[in-house]
Design goal:
The chain has nine helices and twelve strands. It is of the alpha+beta class. It starts with 19 loop residues before the first helix and ends with a strand.
């Protein structure tokens, strides 16, 4: 006897399963939502980072963090030496100059002239000289800073330039030119306080001549230096160092000569030199302004008058020479 069991399998009712479109939607929609969430999260993180940077970004008018730019374990001379030997020889980068200038604390006024006041300041425990120009003398300040930053200008008998910067608090503007500080001050003041020996006179005279010779000399090459004439050589523009040598300062009237084009770069300002030290051809306006040699000769004439001042204060066995 054969027993057969029949099982009836009914087809699923229509509409009880997911169509391919619904299945694709179920898979794609959550995936898209996850992607959108990830993108929004990344944007939010990036926005937070930007806000953090902006919140901690220093105002360009505020003092810069010298710890990040200037090594505090080096003195100014080492810093300047490193910058000049590893770079173009034109001095410190502008940002470093600004950092140094804005962290200087002025101590005392040490001199005043027609175009500014000179202060002794402190930077990281070191003395520096700060020449402060008013905004009316911006051309003189800019020109002097430009000349000091001439490539290959640095020399032991040229005043060591450190930085140039402008100070603006909204109501007034000061233009700063920062240089090395020499406690003896100008040769004019030094000779008024002391007499010099013959040996001291020779040392001073040689160093003055060496500084002027370096200015006048053109250095040929890709990192060369143009010839420069000072145009205001006088004892007040020469400083005396601790070792008894001198440095040439105040280059605001200096002219540069391009030998390739024979062009003389003359500053556009209203300053004039000191008449007492001017060569006769400058006083009577007969100097050849198109000849750079004329400017060099005028410097030598002025240097001769400075040498006369030196000789006037030279003593031999307690008696002045003249």
């Amino acid at each position: 006897m054969c027993m057969c069991v029949y099982i009836a399998v009914e087809p699923p009712p229509e509409g009880s399963g997911w169509s391919q479109l619904e299945l694709a939607a179920v898979i794609l929609v959550p995936s898209c939502l996850v992607c959108v969430g990830v993108i929004l999260g990344m944007c939010a993180i990036q926005n937070l980072q930007c806000n953090h940077i902006k919140a901690h970004k220093q105002d360009p008018e505020e003092p810069l963090d010298d710890q990040a730019l200037v090594s505090t374990d080096k003195c100014l001379k080492e810093l300047i030496y490193d910058m000049n030997t590893s770079g173009s020889g034109s001095g410190l980068p502008l940002l470093v100059q600004r950092t140094i200038a804005r962290t200087i604390v002025l101590q005392e006024s040490i001199g005043k002239g027609r175009f500014g006041e000179v202060w002794r300041g402190k930077w990281s425990g070191e003395d520096v000289a700060v020449k402060i120009f008013s905004s009316r003398d911006e051309r003189s300040w800019f020109r002097e800073a430009e000349i000091y930053q001439t490539i290959m200008l640095r020399h032991e008998n040229i005043l060591g330039f450190i930085a140039a910067d402008n100070k603006d608090n909204g109501s007034w503007t000061q233009l700063w030119l920062v240089s090395e500080y020499h406690e003896h001050g100008s040769l004019f003041d030094y000779l008024n306080r002391y007499t010099v020996s013959v040996e001291g006179m020779i040392v001073l005279a040689l160093s003055i001549a060496s500084g002027i010779a370096h200015l006048h000399m053109e250095i040929i090459g890709t990192q060369g230096k143009p010839a420069i004439a000072h145009r205001d050589i006088k004892s007040k523009n020469i400083l005396v160092k601790k070792n008894g040598t001198a440095v040439i300062a105040d280059l605001g009237l200096a002219v540069k000569h391009d030998s390739n084009t024979n062009n003389i770069d003359i500053p556009i300002n209203h300053r004039v030199g000191t008449k007492r030290y001017m060569a006769p051809e400058i006083l009577d306006d007969s100097v050849n302004m198109s000849s750079f040699e004329s400017f060099k000769r005028a410097d030598i004439y002025s240097m001769g008058l400075v040498f006369w001042e030196l000789a006037h204060r030279c003593s031999i066995q307690g008696a002045l020479l003249c």
